[in-house]
Write a structure and sequence with these properties.
By secondary structure, the chain is an alpha+beta fold. It has 10 helices and 10 strands.
């Protein structure tokens, strides 16, 4: 199950308290990156085929593709501070900061054990970020961003030491390939782009391209292209007075009926109703 993350701040980061249920919940994933710090209690943290016992002070690293969920102990419920943040916050500063999150599930240790200098250092930063975002004192977004980048550097240095040079280089190259793939799709989504076009551009097989799209976005190639096109259509509906048909085709849809079907399925309303609610005419 994919969770939709909405950010409550002017930069794409959330910090919140969470107490998991004491019974099994569905596994989920989301487009944001996530770091959790256990403030107290006990329980379990499940990552697909991995299970970690949880105690106070533990830290957990979650990327944007791996299914996961936490569960509290019945008699000693676990309590966390979680950070959710968009990968762009690291990408804009230094793309290497994303490498600790570019892992394959079965080979990655998501757990940083309580009582270690590393978990204590990360836990302190997470608590400080949480306090800054809640207090909202002057300059809080700046200091929040700085502390998140510091956290990213700490994770980069830690995980770099756990991989061989060959493994690290493979991760680095893989991340670069994914970024090229995503950029190509974002630049060409208004065209009748096919999966085979992306594969040909990258020199990959269609099977590999399809797998990488699903791993990185959490959805299929077709669903992701639809998402990009709907996002563009929503922008045009709000900011222009162009006809629905013109917006449909300029957003990359090949027919008006397919645009209406996709828009209703994704947004939950018609393009006309969306424009009526949010369009430029509402400003006057």
């Amino acid at each position: 199950m994919k969770q939709k993350i909405e950010y409550d701040n002017l930069i794409p980061i959330n910090a919140y308290l969470w107490c998991p249920k004491p019974y099994p919940q569905p596994l989920h994933f989301h487009s944001s990156l996530e770091i959790g710090y256990c403030r107290g209690g006990r329980g379990q943290f499940i990552f697909e085929n991995k299970l970690y016992e949880v105690r106070k002070g533990d830290v957990f690293i979650v990327n944007n593709t791996e299914l996961h969920i936490a569960q509290s102990s019945m008699h000693d419920p676990s309590q966390y501070i979680f950070l959710n943040f968009d990968p762009s916050l690291f990408l804009e500063e230094n793309e290497k900061l994303l490498l600790p999150f570019a892992y394959r599930s079965e080979r990655f240790e998501n757990h940083i054990a309580a009582g270690t200098p590393l978990s204590q250092q990360i836990g302190l930063l997470i608590q400080q970020i949480y306090e800054e975002l809640n207090a909202k004192a002057e300059g809080y977004l700046t200091i929040t961003r700085c502390k998140l980048l510091e956290l990213g550097v700490i994770l980069l240095r830690h995980y770099r030491s756990t991989f061989s040079d060959e493994q690290w280089m493979k991760m680095h190259n893989s991340k670069r390939e994914i970024e090229e793939m995503m950029l190509f799709m974002k630049e060409r989504f208004q065209e009748p782009l096919q999966l085979t076009d992306v594969a040909e551009h990258l020199g990959w097989s269609t099977a590999r391209t399809s797998r990488f799209v699903k791993e990185h976005t959490g959805i299929s190639f077709i669903a992701y292209m639809t998402q990009l096109r709907i996002s563009e259509a929503k922008k045009q509906l709000v900011t222009s007075l162009d006809s629905i048909a013109a917006i449909s085709f300029s957003s990359g849809f090949q027919s008006l009926p397919s645009f209406y079907r996709a828009f209703n399925a994704v947004v939950g309303t018609s393009p006309q109703e969306y424009r009526k609610q949010f369009g430029v005419k509402q400003l006057f």
